[in-house]
Write a structure and sequence with these properties.
Elements: H1 5-20, E1 41-46, E2 59-68, E3 80-85, H2 97-105, H3 112-118, E4 121-133, E5 146-150, H4 152-161, E6 180-183, E7 185-187, E8 190-192, E9 197-198, H5 207-216, H6 231-245, H7 252-255, H8 317-333
Antiparallel strand pairs: 1-4, 1-6, 2-3, 2-4, 4-5, 6-9, 7-8
Helix pairs in contact: 2-3
Length: 334
């Protein structure tokens, strides 16, 4: 509880500053390590999360990609992709309507490929200092406390090393912490970070780094997660998912005010109220394999300059129809 007007004003000013920094597009507080050339590296020093409820010094982010053959009403429209948040990342017991369906696909070997296509894609949010880098940045932010978007490959290295009994202190400790070196190579035409590693030598934060923490404060990483979808938005996500599986184009008029492809503007006018064509199905969750993937464009920043993976083939009409029939049959049973 605030005890003075000065405290209230300081809190409001802090919220205003943070809200202005939450847009990823053009936000140079994010250190885009994926823009490093092959052979380049960067030395990072991670910092704790300002949110005391977070046990870790990172936060998981999970998104689902919905591919569409094009945009409804546009001639010669190219395929587009819409990303929606998987509500399971909020760790409050919420059920994801898309994963509720996709989990069942892994019971059928013929649907596993489709299941992987629509499974949630994970990445991890960190914060800290860039202590060294061989990559040139055109514009450095005033606040030297940067945000890092870490892929599952790098996260696995970070996490596994924390179990090393020779590491005696948290890597984020201000006096006895450890640096982490991200090293970029290529393997099979793709970016590879498997040679990234923790430093074996402890080092304290510099006076300048400690001064930056005192001046700017640490980020509450949870403020950089996508907004949790409302009930209406969950219904929109479910309908978009079914349309994507069915091979339909993206409908800007129907969904544009909720979720859009990157770079697309919100429609000038749209339906005031969304009415789902079918109720959201709720299926009992079943086990599914961990499927991790990473795309820097998830965060409104340029993708890494590496060879793109081969495009996933559009499912055959027969398979899509079978899946949709299964989804709709389950919905009708509710």
């Amino acid at each position: 509880m605030a005890t003075s007007l000065a405290e209230i004003r300081a809190k409001l000013a802090q919220q205003e500053t943070r809200s202005q920094g939450q847009g990823f597009t053009g936000d140079n507080s994010i250190f885009a390590h994926w823009n490093m050339e092959e052979g380049q590296n960067a030395v990072l020093r991670f910092l704790p999360d300002a949110n005391a409820k977070n046990t870790f010094f990172w936060l998981e982010r999970a998104m689902i990609r919905l591919p569409f053959a094009g945009v409804k009403g546009e001639l010669d429209s190219k395929p587009v992709q819409v990303q929606v948040p998987c509500v399971e990342m909020y760790n409050d017991g919420s059920a994801c309507p898309i994963l509720a369906e996709v989990r069942n696909w892994f019971k059928d070997p013929s649907l596993e490929e489709m299941g992987r296509k629509y499974w949630k894609k994970k990445s991890y949010l960190f914060q800290g200092f860039v202590r060294q880098t061989t990559m040139t940045e055109e514009r450095l932010p005033e606040n030297p406390i940067r945000r890092f978007i870490i892929s599952p490959q790098i996260f696995t290295i970070i996490k596994s090393s924390l179990m090393d009994p020779e590491i005696e202190e948290l890597p984020t400790d201000y006096q006895r912490g450890l640096d982490f070196r991200i090293s970029k190579t290529t393997k099979g035409g793709y970016a590879d970070y498997s040679t990234s590693t923790w430093s074996r030598k402890e080092s304290p934060l510099t006076e300048a780094e400690q001064a930056a923490i005192n001046q700017y404060g640490l980020y509450d990483l949870s403020t950089f997660l996508p907004k949790k979808p409302t009930d209406v938005e969950l219904k929109v996500m479910k309908e978009m998912f079914e349309a994507s599986v069915d091979g339909q184009p993206y409908d800007t008029e129907r969904w544009g005010q909720y979720y859009r492809p990157t770079g697309m503007q919100a429609p000038a006018s749209s339906n005031a109220e969304f009415t789902a064509s079918a109720p959201v199905a709720e299926s009992a969750p079943t086990a599914a394999p961990e499927i991790n993937s990473f795309d820097d464009s998830d965060f409104g920043v340029p993708s890494a300059p590496v060879a793109a993976p081969a495009a996933t083939a559009t499912p055959s009409s027969a398979k899509a129809n079978d899946i949709l029939a299964m989804i709709r049959a389950r919905s009708e049973q509710k």
